[in-house]
């Protein structure tokens, strides 16, 4: 969770969590303008993720045990409605 920061969408005022460290471990290539990074954000994001896993535990087990096509999209958008606001964004970060 320490690799993520919080960014607030100026038009919707919705909080988004974005990776602030690249897959290679470097942040120099990323544009971090408007992204807040601190330990409170990491804790909040960790709690939110744990809550989602707890609430959707059965769905997670079902999807990953069947190895269905497009697991990320089906779980994130169609089964849980957690990501409907982000349908235009790739769920590759899951």
TrEMBL record:
- Family per record: Belongs to the canopy family.
Give the species this sequence originates from.
Vulpes vulpes (Red fox)
Coiled coil regions, renumbered to chain? none
Q: What is the lineage of its organism?
A: Eukaryota, Metazoa, Chordata, Craniata, Vertebrata
UniProt name for this protein: Protein canopy homolog 2
Query: DUF3456 domain: which residues?
Result: 1-83
Q: Which residues cross the membrane?
A: none
**Superkingdom of origin:** Eukaryota
> Which InterPro entries does the record cross-reference, listed alphabetically?
CNPY, DUF3456
